[in-house]
Every structure is written in C-alpha cells, then in structure tokens.
Amino acid sequence: MVNARLTIKQMQEVFQSSPIFELNTRRIAIRRQLRHRPDDSVLFKALHATLRDKVIRLAATDGVFITYSAYDAVFAADLDADLTGHQVKSTMGAYDRSKSDMMQASIRATMDQSNVLLLIISESSLRDMNVIATYEYFWNTGKIIVPIMFEPCNIDHLLLGVAPLDFYDQWKHGLRRLHHLVSAKS
C-alpha cells in the first residue's frame, strides 16, 4: 500500500515551483518598493508585467475572492452569480475581525486558497475596515487584485497596477472584460 500523504518538504517544493508563487513573490517585492516610491513609473511597469491577462486567468483557476461593503452586497451577489454561471469558482466575503476565531480562520483559509481578489470599489468600500483588511492581506501576500469600479472614486492610493473594470458607466463592457480575465473559456 502506497502512503498518499505528502511531507511538508514535498508540499513546499510543489508550491514553490509554481509560477503563481514566483509571481506573487515578485509582486511582494515590487509593492514594498512602491510604498516608498508611489510615483515610480518603472516600478508600476514592473508590477503591470506581473499582471498580464493570461497570468490573471491562470491565477483565477484556483478561484476568486470577492470583497465588498454592505452597501455593495446586492451588486456583489449579482457578480458572484454571474461568475458561477461562467464556471468561475468565486467566494464572497471580507476578513472580519469581529467574527469568531473559527469564522475568521475559515475566511482566512478561503483567502489563502484564492489567488485573485475582486475588490468592489465604492465610497462605502473604501471606508469599510473589513474590505480594507482584505485588500491589505491580498496586497501584502503579492496576490492579484482586480478592482471593480461600482462607483467612481479615487483609488490611486491603492497602488494596484491594474486598471479598474468599469461597472459604473459601462456594465456590459466591464462584465465582458471580467469574463475575459477570470474565465478559463476565454
């Protein structure tokens, strides 16, 4: 009988040989530098190079995490249903420090498994501490953050490296672009 368990070392070797891991690591380094030099166009160009469409699509195969404020909940649910209908594994939520330890651990595990954050942008979400905590987790771990513009607002301070998908003025175009980015069928 073959033991199907992997050792921790074997799991680390598999994980670290992943192109997603390598790109996440590169994004971490670039983002750290961007905190000190937010106007550096060379850094933004380097960050953008790690966020090409095919990279986002590959990262999205593990699923996407959608974070939103309470104000944006109906929009987030519609977006989640649409993605599910296009065979994209998606989870809605936010890292909520007020939840029980068990609930926080469950949300954190889901965030760990997802390599793409769909960050719903509105004035409300930019003031929501749980949305910001979720954004910071994905940002600090080098994961991909795709901004979904639900309401027009200034997001320059977020240092994303990806242009927001416009769901405010151009719903259909934004949805087509999102499908292109995260659907395996594209």
Structural commentary:
- The chain has 186 residues and is an alpha/beta fold.
- It has one domain (8-182): Rossmann fold, CATH 3.40.50.
- The protein contains nine helices and five strands.
- It has helices at residues 8-16, 19-36, 41-49, 53-60, 73-85, 101-113, 123-127, 129-140, 171-182; strands at 64-67, 90-92, 116-121, 144-149, 165-166.
- Strands 2-1-3-4-5 form a five-stranded parallel sheet, with helices on both faces.
- Strand 1 (64-67), helix 5 (73-85) and strand 2 (90-92) form a beta-alpha-beta unit.
- Helix 2 runs antiparallel to helix 3 (41-49).
- The mean pLDDT is 85.
Task: Write a compact overview of the structure shown.
Helix 2 runs antiparallel to helix 3 (41-49). This protein has 186 residues and is of the alpha/beta class.
Helix and strand succession?
Answer: HHHHEHEHEHHEEH
Could you name the CATH topology?
Answer: Rossmann fold
**Shape-level CATH architecture:** 3-Layer(aba) Sandwich
* Number of beta strands: 5
CATH class: Alpha Beta
User: How many alpha or pi helices?
Assistant: 9
